[in-house]
Design goal:
This protein is of the alpha+beta class. It is built from five helices and 14 strands. It has a single domain, classed as Creatine Amidinohydrolase. The strands form four sheets. A five-stranded antiparallel beta sheet has the order 7-6-8-13-14. A three-stranded antiparallel beta sheet has the order 1-3-4. α1 (about 10-35) packs antiparallel against α2 and α3 packs antiparallel against α4 (about 155-165). The relative contact order is 0.18.
Length: about 280
């Protein structure tokens, strides 16, 4: 059903259905991460994601996306974004090298319900700077997830992501142009969930909401450019980027991170947040 703000509010059974899609996403990301080694191409990573979808008889919510908006239909089941590519990297013949990082964004549809998540993978022996970039982006994601609670507002998530990224000794570029989002019977739904903002602002979070929290950060500035393929988004200053994302449901027991194999329990417990798994 849709709430008065036109947000899709899910029943417990619908959230359980979304969990099935989330588990396919988690398995696909694990399979693709294993393929992300020196010498592999970004197309090799995409192929691994396709095999997982086929094994579960799931559909891709990325493949052919964008045509309704006048964009070229997206040709992959995953966005595979190495180094200076922030997001929406089209899989192809680009070969990964030792020391690269690659962000993999991936989704699945099971019985009409969507899942969506992203991971930054370290390829071979990476620099400490690149490793820390990925870790601080991941930590910012979890800082935002920890603020997903009934009665809080979307701005509380945004402020927590921003504060986490700004809490370090060096400056990171916080990508503002691309945001998290609601998810359910479509991949991108209201509300938008920015990665920066002020606490106490925005729509109120209620039980039954399902949100994607997805910070993107760079080693340089927040300035972006889109390549001629109309999809690939890169840093203007060629600095490297990281992208982490999870699908999170608000249940009557707490939070259920649908795209984590353990439902997010380990990370939530570290932060004193109840895990609201319904399985």
């Amino acid at each position: 059903m849709l709430g008065r703000h036109r947000f899709q509010i899910k029943t417990p059974d619908q959230i359980r259905a979304m969990r099935r899609a989330g588990l396919v996403v988690a398995e696909g990301l694990e399979a693709m991460s294993a393929v992300a080694v020196p010498g592999a191409t970004t197309a090799d990573i995409d192929r691994a994601g396709r095999k997982v979808l086929e094994r579960h008889n799931a559909r891709s919510n990325f493949l052919n996306y964008g045509g309704d908006w006048g964009l070229p239909p997206y040709p992959g089941v995953a966005c595979v974004s190495p180094n200076e590519t922030i997001v929406h990297g089209i899989p192809g013949e680009r070969e990964l090298k030792d020391g690269d990082v690659v962000s993999i964004d991936y989704g699945a549809i099971v019985d009409g319900w969507h899942g969506d998540a992203a991971r930054t993978v370290l390829v071979g022996d990476v620099s400490e700077e690149a490793r820390v970039l990925s870790e601080v982006t991941r930590e910012a994601m979890w800082a935002g997830i920890a603020k997903v609670a009934p009665g809080n507002r979307i701005g509380d998530i945004s402020a927590a992501v921003q504060a986490s990224l700004e809490s370090h000794d060096r400056d990171y570029g916080i990508i503002r142009e691309y945001t998290g989002h609601g998810i359910g019977t479509e991949m991108h739904m209201d509300p938008d969930v920015p990665n920066w903002g002020r606490a106490g602002r925005g729509p109120k979070i209620v039980e039954g909401m399902v949100l994607c929290i997805e910070p993107m950060a760079t080693l340089g500035t927040e300035d972006t450019a889109t390549l001629d393929d109309e999809w690939t988004v890169v840093t203007v200053d060629s600095s490297w980027a990281s992208h982490w994302e999870n699908t999170v449901a608000v249940t009557n027991k707490g939070l259920w991170v649908l795209s984590e194999p353990d439902g997010g329990r380990a990370e939530l417990e570290k932060r004193g947040v109840p895990c609201g798994a319904l399985d």
